[in-house]
Amino acid sequence: MKDQEYLRNNTRIAAMKEESLSRREFLKVSGQVGLGALALAVDGRALLLGQEGTTQWLHHSFQSQSGAAWIREIYLEAREVDWELAPGKIIKAMAYNGQIPGPEIRLKEGERVRIVLKNTLPEPTTIHWHGVDVPNPMDGVPGITQDPIRPGETFVYEFEARPAGTRWYHTHFQEHRQLDLGLYAPLIIEPAEEKELAFDREYTLVLDDWATGIGHPLLSTRAGTAGRRGNMGGMMGSDVWTINGKQYPKTEPLRLRKGDLVRVRFFNHSMEAHPMHLHGQSFKVLAVNGQGLPAPIVKDSVDVEAHMGSVDIEFIAHNPGDRFFHCHKPMHMRGGMVTLAKIG
User: Fold this and answer.
1) Does some domain include residue 186?
2) Which of 129, 182, 126, 177 is nearest to 154 (CA)?
3) Do 135 and 272 lie in a common domain?
4) Which of 145, 168, 190 represents a domain boundary (last residue)?
5) Do 261 and 281 share a domain, yes or no?
6) pLDDT tens for each residue of 212-239
7) Which of 171, 190, 209 finishes a domain?
8) Is the pTM of this model over 0.90?
9) How many domains are contained in the chain?
């Protein structure tokens, strides 16, 4: 009964927001930005982030029903996109706010968050908060904790961000297909009390594989489609291997200065483990699958477990040059799972 009441209240909040001035204001501005948007309530304002870096401030804010605490509000849109893995290599995919992976959400442990998902896909969807201790009605399992969000509908997820760690959010509707098509993104919950190191640079690297031609070379036309991996979970059908949705040399490099203290969070969305290796540098492994290690381990390669595995590392950029940073499996490296750590 408690869960049902929570869900009814959540649905009522969503309906009210559709009629509110602030909601209309958000939709108006998000239409101006273009390819999807992310809004964050910060100091009584909502920051709207466009895919191309465009920002606008919406002058409204949100409080809990008791009025005792501010609630951060985030807007997501699930929709179909044409996604460019590499120049001229375009696939049909699904994305949050027009990007693969979706926008990184970063919260403080214990922070209350309200996430408004608008479904503009031609099919239902939901979001699951992987590794987060959410109330049952907010868990995103269609037919169990909520009805699927139908095309054109909006659903409001509300929860406290716990526990701290490197987490995910992703679709849970026909996830074998919608996940393969791109509906996933990082969710980072920073400790509430533990003092974080003052990193000079932080990067999140999401690892994935794509079957664009069922084992053939990457298509040079727009005919490629995300997903449709082979029977071995990517081993037989994948022909493109990406970092943050891009195939090398389209991947974005890590731009560092000598002496920078750097944190890198790896997320593995593919069905194979990836031994990630950084040339010319060793690093400390801080956490595996969201759990901090009692004592950091110094390595120059680290395995990121298959399908939702994560690893956090840190290093001091002490060795100048363009340093190769890649999966050490030859097929994956050849398929594009490579970036550069450019240390100036």
Assistant:
1) yes
2) 126
3) no
4) 190
5) yes
6) 863 344 444 344 445 444 333 344 478 8
7) 190
8) no
9) 2
Which amino acid, 37? Answer: A
Residue 239's nearest CA partner among 258, 225, 250, 253 is 225
Structure confidence at residue 14 (pLDDT): 37
Q: What is the DSSP secondary structure assignment for residue 63, as one 8-state letter? A: B
Q: Clarify whether residues 68 and 18 are in a common domain.
A: yes
Closest CA to 17 of 2, 39, 32, 42: 39
DSSP letter for each residue of 323-338: EEEEESSHHHHHTT-E
The backbone torsions φ and ψ at residue 320, rounded to the nearest 5 degrees and listed phi first, read -60, 155
CATH number of the domain to which 154 belongs: 2.60.40.420
- Whether residue 21 is contained in a domain is answered as yes
**Exposure of 84 in the CB half-sphere (CA atoms within 13 A):** 6
pLDDT value, residue 213: 65
Structure tokens at 93: 């995919």
Cα(319)–Cα(68) distance, rounded to whole angstroms? 50
User: What are the tokens at 192?
Assistant: 């509430």
What are the tens digits of pLDDT across the range 78-128?
A: 999 999 998 888 999 999 999 999 999 999 999 999 999 999 999 999 999
- Structural domain that includes position 225: 201-343
Q: Say if residue 219 is in the same domain as residue 180.
A: no
CA dihedral (333, 52, 172, 313) in degrees, to 10, reads: 50
C-alpha dihedral sign at 231, 225, 140, 267: positive
Task: Identify residue 239 by its one-letter amino acid code.
Answer: D
29 and 144 belong to one structural domain: yes
- Tell me which of 6-20, 170-184, 318-332 is least confident: 6-20
- The helix (run of H) or strand (run of E) holding residue 7 is helix 2-19
Burial 304-340 (b: 16+ CB within 10 A, else e): bebebbbbbbbbbbeeeeebebbbeeeebbebbbbbb
